[in-house]
Protein backbone atom coordinates (compact mmCIF):
# COMPACT_ATOMS: atom_id res chain seq x y z
CA UNK A 1 0.00 0.00 0.00
CA UNK A 2 1.48 3.31 -1.07
CA UNK A 3 -0.06 6.34 0.63
CA UNK A 4 0.94 10.00 0.44
CA UNK A 5 -1.30 11.15 3.30
CA UNK A 6 -0.03 10.26 6.76
CA UNK A 7 -3.56 9.80 8.11
CA UNK A 8 -4.41 7.59 5.12
CA UNK A 9 -1.70 5.12 6.08
CA UNK A 10 -2.78 4.57 9.70
CA UNK A 11 -5.84 2.33 9.14
CA UNK A 12 -4.04 -0.01 6.69
CA UNK A 13 -1.06 -0.32 9.03
CA UNK A 14 -3.46 -1.30 11.80
CA UNK A 15 -5.74 -3.64 9.83
CA UNK A 16 -3.14 -5.24 7.58
CA UNK A 17 -0.36 -5.80 10.11
CA UNK A 18 -0.95 -9.58 10.17
CA UNK A 19 -0.91 -9.87 6.36
CA UNK A 20 2.03 -9.82 3.93
CA UNK A 21 1.40 -6.15 3.08
CA UNK A 22 3.83 -3.24 3.28
CA UNK A 23 2.62 0.28 3.90
CA UNK A 24 4.93 2.71 2.09
CA UNK A 25 4.83 6.51 2.41
CA UNK A 26 4.90 8.28 -0.95
CA UNK A 27 2.96 8.40 -4.19
CA UNK A 28 2.61 5.65 -6.75
CA UNK A 29 3.38 7.77 -9.81
CA UNK A 30 4.63 11.30 -10.51
CA UNK A 31 2.29 14.29 -10.51
CA UNK A 32 2.91 14.70 -14.25
CA UNK A 33 1.32 11.28 -14.81
CA UNK A 34 -2.02 12.27 -13.26
CA UNK A 35 -4.95 12.83 -15.58
CA UNK A 36 -5.00 16.42 -16.73
CA UNK A 37 -8.13 18.51 -16.24
CA UNK A 38 -8.98 18.25 -19.96
CA UNK A 39 -8.83 14.42 -19.71
CA UNK A 40 -11.57 14.45 -17.08
CA UNK A 41 -15.08 14.53 -18.56
CA UNK A 42 -16.90 17.76 -17.79
CA UNK A 43 -19.75 15.88 -16.10
CA UNK A 44 -17.22 14.46 -13.59
CA UNK A 45 -15.81 17.85 -12.59
CA UNK A 46 -18.10 17.87 -9.58
CA UNK A 47 -17.69 19.23 -6.05
CA UNK A 48 -15.55 16.16 -5.31
CA UNK A 49 -13.24 17.11 -8.19
CA UNK A 50 -13.09 20.72 -7.01
CA UNK A 51 -12.18 19.61 -3.47
CA UNK A 52 -9.58 16.96 -4.31
CA UNK A 53 -7.94 17.40 -7.72
CA UNK A 54 -5.74 20.42 -6.92
CA UNK A 55 -5.07 19.14 -3.39
CA UNK A 56 -3.89 15.77 -4.72
CA UNK A 57 -1.81 17.36 -7.48
CA UNK A 58 -0.09 19.59 -4.92
CA UNK A 59 0.60 16.65 -2.58
CA UNK A 60 1.93 14.51 -5.40
CA UNK A 61 4.35 17.24 -6.47
CA UNK A 62 6.10 16.94 -3.09
CA UNK A 63 5.79 13.14 -2.80
CA UNK A 64 8.33 10.59 -3.92
CA UNK A 65 6.90 8.18 -6.55
CA UNK A 66 7.47 4.61 -5.32
CA UNK A 67 5.87 2.26 -7.85
CA UNK A 68 8.72 2.02 -10.39
CA UNK A 69 11.28 1.44 -7.61
CA UNK A 70 9.19 -1.25 -5.93
CA UNK A 71 8.44 -3.03 -9.22
CA UNK A 72 12.14 -3.05 -10.14
CA UNK A 73 13.07 -4.60 -6.81
CA UNK A 74 10.28 -7.16 -6.28
CA UNK A 75 7.92 -9.47 -8.14
CA UNK A 76 4.32 -9.06 -7.04
CA UNK A 77 1.87 -11.88 -7.67
CA UNK A 78 -1.05 -9.47 -7.36
CA UNK A 79 -1.30 -5.70 -7.62
CA UNK A 80 -4.47 -3.90 -6.54
CA UNK A 81 -5.26 -0.55 -8.16
CA UNK A 82 -7.42 1.19 -5.58
CA UNK A 83 -6.13 4.67 -5.14
CA UNK A 84 -6.61 8.12 -6.44
CA UNK A 85 -9.09 8.38 -9.30
CA UNK A 86 -6.76 10.74 -11.14
CA UNK A 87 -3.80 8.32 -11.15
CA UNK A 88 -5.44 4.97 -11.97
CA UNK A 89 -4.52 5.00 -15.67
CA UNK A 90 -0.87 5.93 -14.97
CA UNK A 91 -0.65 3.31 -12.21
CA UNK A 92 -2.05 0.68 -14.56
CA UNK A 93 0.50 1.47 -17.26
CA UNK A 94 3.38 1.25 -14.81
CA UNK A 95 1.99 -1.95 -13.29
CA UNK A 96 1.45 -3.74 -16.60
CA UNK A 97 4.80 -2.67 -18.07
CA UNK A 98 7.08 -2.66 -15.02
CA UNK A 99 5.54 -4.88 -12.32
CA UNK A 100 3.93 -7.43 -14.64
CA UNK A 101 2.02 -9.22 -11.86
CA UNK A 102 0.28 -12.52 -12.44
CA UNK A 103 -2.96 -10.97 -11.17
CA UNK A 104 -4.25 -7.43 -11.49
CA UNK A 105 -7.13 -6.36 -9.25
CA UNK A 106 -9.28 -3.27 -9.78
CA UNK A 107 -11.45 -1.67 -7.12
CA UNK A 108 -14.23 0.83 -7.82
CA UNK A 109 -14.76 -0.51 -11.32
CA UNK A 110 -16.80 1.50 -13.80
CA UNK A 111 -15.55 4.77 -12.32
CA UNK A 112 -13.14 7.43 -13.58
CA UNK A 113 -10.31 5.60 -11.78
CA UNK A 114 -10.76 2.39 -13.79
CA UNK A 115 -12.72 3.34 -16.92
CA UNK A 116 -9.72 3.63 -19.29
CA UNK A 117 -8.15 0.52 -17.74
CA UNK A 118 -11.29 -1.56 -18.31
CA UNK A 119 -11.57 -0.32 -21.90
CA UNK A 120 -7.93 -1.22 -22.52
CA UNK A 121 -8.27 -4.70 -20.99
CA UNK A 122 -11.41 -5.38 -23.03
CA UNK A 123 -9.53 -4.48 -26.22
CA UNK A 124 -6.32 -6.34 -25.24
CA UNK A 125 -7.47 -9.68 -23.87
CA UNK A 126 -4.16 -11.17 -24.98
CA UNK A 127 -2.49 -9.45 -21.99
CA UNK A 128 -4.91 -10.00 -19.12
CA UNK A 129 -8.13 -12.00 -19.08
CA UNK A 130 -11.02 -11.35 -16.71
CA UNK A 131 -10.67 -13.94 -13.95
CA UNK A 132 -13.29 -12.93 -11.37
CA UNK A 133 -15.60 -9.97 -10.82
CA UNK A 134 -18.23 -8.77 -8.42
CA UNK A 135 -21.52 -10.50 -9.10
CA UNK A 136 -19.88 -13.70 -10.35
CA UNK A 137 -18.28 -14.99 -7.15
CA UNK A 138 -20.08 -18.29 -7.53
CA UNK A 139 -20.06 -18.85 -11.28
CA UNK A 140 -16.72 -17.78 -12.81
CA UNK A 141 -14.55 -20.90 -12.80
CA UNK A 142 -11.73 -21.30 -11.91
CA UNK A 143 -11.57 -17.72 -10.58
CA UNK A 144 -14.31 -18.25 -8.01
CA UNK A 145 -12.01 -20.68 -6.21
CA UNK A 146 -10.22 -17.58 -4.85
CA UNK A 147 -13.30 -16.84 -2.73
CA UNK A 148 -14.56 -20.38 -2.24
CA UNK A 149 -17.18 -20.01 -5.01
CA UNK A 150 -19.51 -18.45 -2.45
CA UNK A 151 -22.54 -16.39 -3.42
CA UNK A 152 -22.27 -12.60 -3.33
CA UNK A 153 -24.60 -12.56 -0.31
CA UNK A 154 -21.87 -14.27 1.75
CA UNK A 155 -19.77 -11.09 1.65
CA UNK A 156 -20.17 -7.73 3.36
CA UNK A 157 -22.50 -5.51 1.35
CA UNK A 158 -20.54 -2.90 -0.58
CA UNK A 159 -21.60 -0.76 -3.53
CA UNK A 160 -18.15 -0.68 -5.11
CA UNK A 161 -17.45 -2.87 -8.10
CA UNK A 162 -14.29 -4.93 -8.40
CA UNK A 163 -12.58 -7.26 -10.83
CA UNK A 164 -9.52 -9.51 -10.92
CA UNK A 165 -7.64 -10.17 -14.15
CA UNK A 166 -5.03 -12.86 -14.77
CA UNK A 167 -2.03 -12.31 -17.02
CA UNK A 168 -2.26 -14.40 -20.19
CA UNK A 169 0.74 -16.61 -20.83
CA UNK A 170 2.15 -15.86 -24.25
CA UNK A 171 4.41 -17.90 -26.50
CA UNK A 172 7.96 -17.47 -25.27
CA UNK A 173 6.88 -15.24 -22.39
CA UNK A 174 6.03 -16.58 -18.98
CA UNK A 175 3.65 -14.86 -16.58
CA UNK A 176 6.69 -14.56 -14.32
CA UNK A 177 9.65 -12.27 -14.87
Automatic annotation (TrEMBL):
Domain of life of the organism encoding this protein: Eukaryota
Protein name, UniProt field: Uncharacterized protein
Natural source organism: Haptolina brevifila
